[in-house]
């Protein structure tokens, strides 16, 4: 029996680093086991904000088609050194932006709708129309952000009548950074219109959280399936845990995601808990916003900070597995309730307790509770957070700080791929 061919349209693909690339890198790894042949379409010259060459070793033996893309970031770099950080999502606070940076955000938000990859839509649709006809491909999957990928799907749906599955790793118009893009009323309306077109013309929608599903159900009657991110089997081996009482955050920690409550708790414990200062270490692994560093300094924690910076995925996994506690921080906003970061699932199989801080009603909280992998706190849970870290420190001193996860299997990448296959080949 011939394998069913499925075209996957994505912007992020190795050597791109960061969480955006992991989801479809892993799906393409397991799809062939279910008699599906994935064909990946991605840019040949993308201006990736984060690069991780080690991920090239994980690319499975599948067909990969590449076409050039025109992006504005190289031109923007002539005017501002912060253009690359803006492309990563590290948008400065209003009072920190100079005139050129404010202008860049205005241009980005109002002239590049839905995003800075919009110029790739028409040439990609032309190229793929011919390719799909030549190779008898009748199913496509688009994954965003960037949501320009969904506009390629929209054009192919209109032209060829293919089966189209649109995968949303994040929401569209409700995402938090839209507020920082200085959108005009007309630009907001255009985003909403494009979002509605995609949601209503796709044959199937995939989202990564229940909250996003609920949001989209108010806009469309198109079927929506939640398929979260997940974990894969890792070959990285760590022989022993850190000797220090390490709290580690893996991934970008941007300035809007500044957990003042955590810094206050840690300062309190350093100053008042016997033995804590001698053993405590804070690891920040990944991009860190300037305001975060300043807050840590304000709370007299600089001497305990190990600011590692961005490292390869394998090195990040080592930090996860050897740390005493793992930190998961999300912005305290209604807009971020639906965000379930991919690193949560890697945290869960690292067998280290998770301390998560985020908004009330966050989807993350229910997953952590359901899997017994840690505790979730709101930004005003000072005393509960303090007591929990204190208890973990006591367990660390006694040599029995551990976690007892349950029900993780359904979040394995292979099991999640099975859910995807059921959408590609509905019975």
Automatic annotation (TrEMBL):
Coiled coil: none annotated. InterPro entries: Glyco_trans_4-like_N. Keywords: Transferase. Residues 103-234 form the Glycosyltransferase subfamily 4-like N-terminal domain. Pfam families: Glyco_transf_4 (PF13439). Signal peptide: none annotated. GO terms for biological process: lipopolysaccharide biosynthetic process. The keyword Cell membrane does not apply. GO terms for molecular function: glycosyltransferase activity. PANTHER family: GLYCOSYLTRANSFERASE WBBK-RELATED. This is Glycosyl transferase family 4.
């Amino acid at each position: 029996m011939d394998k069913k061919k499925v075209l996957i349209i994505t912007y992020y693909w190795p050597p791109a680093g960061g969480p955006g690339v992991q989801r479809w890198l892993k799906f393409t790894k397991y799809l062939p086991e279910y008699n599906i042949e994935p064909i990946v379409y991605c840019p040949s010259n993308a201006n990736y904000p984060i690069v991780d060459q080690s991920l090239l070793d994980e690319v499975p033996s599948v067909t990969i088609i590449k076409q050039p893309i025109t992006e504005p970031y190289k031109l923007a770099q002539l005017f501002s050194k912060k253009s690359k950080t803006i492309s990563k999502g590290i948008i400065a606070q209003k009072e920190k932006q100079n005139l050129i940076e404010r202008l860049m955000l205005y241009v980005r938000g109002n002239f590049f709708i839905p995003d800075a990859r919009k110029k790739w839509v028409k040439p990609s649709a032309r190229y793929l129309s011919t390719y799909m006809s030549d190779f008898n491909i009748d199913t496509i999957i688009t994954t965003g952000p960037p949501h320009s990928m969904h506009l390629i799907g929209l054009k192919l749906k209109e032209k060829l009548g293919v089966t189209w599955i649109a995968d949303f790793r994040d929401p569209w118009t409700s995402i938090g950074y839209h507020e920082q893009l200085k959108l005009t009323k007309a630009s907001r309306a255009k985003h909403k219109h494009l979002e509605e077109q995609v949601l209503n013309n796709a044959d199937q929608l995939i989202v990564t959280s229940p909250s996003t599903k609920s949001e989209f159900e108010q806009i469309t009657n198109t079927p929506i399936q939640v398929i979260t991110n997940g974990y894969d089997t890792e070959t990285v081996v760590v022989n022993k845990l850190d000797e220090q009482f390490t709290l580690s955050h893996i991934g970008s920690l941007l300035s809007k995601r500044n957990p003042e409550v955590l810094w206050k708790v840690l300062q309190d414990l350093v100053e008042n808990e016997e033995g804590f200062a001698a053993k405590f270490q804070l690891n920040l692994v990944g991009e860190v916003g300037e305001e975060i560093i300043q807050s840590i300094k304000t709370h007299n924690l600089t001497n305990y900070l190990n600011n590692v910076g961005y490292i390869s995925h394998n090195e990040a996994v080592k930090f996860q597995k050897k740390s005493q506690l793992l930190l998961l921080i999300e912005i305290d906003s209604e807009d971020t309730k639906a965000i379930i970061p991919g690193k949560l699932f890697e945290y869960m199989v690292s067998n280290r307790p998770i301390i998560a801080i985020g908004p009330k009603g966050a989807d993350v909280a229910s997953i952590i509770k359901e899997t017994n992998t840690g505790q979730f706190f709101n930004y005003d849970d000072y005393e509960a957070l303090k007591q929990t870290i204190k208890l973990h420190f006591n367990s660390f001193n006694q040599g029995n700080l551990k976690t007892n996860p349950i029900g993780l299997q359904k979040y394995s990448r292979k099991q999640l791929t099975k859910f995807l296959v059921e959408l590609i080949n509905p019975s």
